[in-house]
Amino acid sequence: MKKQNLSAIEHSVLEAIQEKALTSFEILDKVENLDMILPLYSVLDNLNDKGVLKSYISNDIKYHIAQ
């Protein structure tokens, strides 16, 4: 995992998706610091912009995993 100016919540999300790709709702269940889906989407966008997140769609479901 690339280390670069990650906030605590970004680090928590990356840890949740380090081993296995998860959906947004699965990430929300694993990360204690987040309790709403909209802030999670912002975090996922930031991680994608930083190049440490990969997202893909399988069977019409979007998954996220750390790169």
Number of helices: 3
Fraction of residues in H or I helices: 40-55%
Q: Could you give the order of strands across the largest sheet?
A: 1-2
User: Distance between termini?
Assistant: 6 Å
CATH superfamily: Winged helix-like DNA-binding domain superfamily/Winged helix DNA-binding domain
Number of domains: 1
Order of helices and strands: HHHEE
Q: In the CATH scheme, what's the topology name?
A: Arc Repressor Mutant, subunit A
Strand content: 15-25%
The low-confidence runs, each spanning 5 or more residues with pLDDT under 50, are none
Q: Structural class of the secondary structure composition?
A: alpha+beta
Q: What is the CA-based Rg, rounded?
A: 11 Å
CATH class: Mainly Alpha
* Mean residue pLDDT: 94
Question: How can the largest sheet be summarized?
Answer: 2 strands, antiparallel
Shape: globular
Tally the beta strands: 2
CATH architecture, please? Orthogonal Bundle
